[in-house]
């Protein structure tokens, strides 16, 4: 349990988000919930432990970098765009998290900024475009705008769960 649990209900129970299309509300709610939980649970996580891999599990730092990167990539595909060199370089570096003082806050801030970019894209996404085909990756595997946006939300929440458990193990919490 976090030291100061939020007195607010989960994001999805706070009502609709202004300007987000109704069919995309669950995506926006999940991303905002992820951002809140990470900030709350990792506020005091030591940067020196960002690269720790208990039992060979992915590190907290990897998850934090991956969360930012996967949102960027899936939302890029949802726009019908290919990944650029900077995105591919970021993907290649996800497994080497920084561990310098302040790194946790930097990683949380980067994720928060990516959530803001995702929210802006959700607001600008016409519901009529949701069933449109989108190719994913170099192989152009088939998806849709809605499929990519939904995957971004569920993938984010899956990694949030993993990072929170790993952070507890690394911190020695009971």
TrEMBL record:
SUPFAM superfamilies: DinB/YfiT-like putative metalloenzymes (SSF109854)
Annotated DinB-like domain residues: 31-163
Protein name listed in UniProt: DinB family protein
Pfam families attached to this UniProt entry: DinB_2
Xref: InterPro entries: DinB-like, DinB/YfiT-like
Annotated organism of origin: Hymenobacter polaris
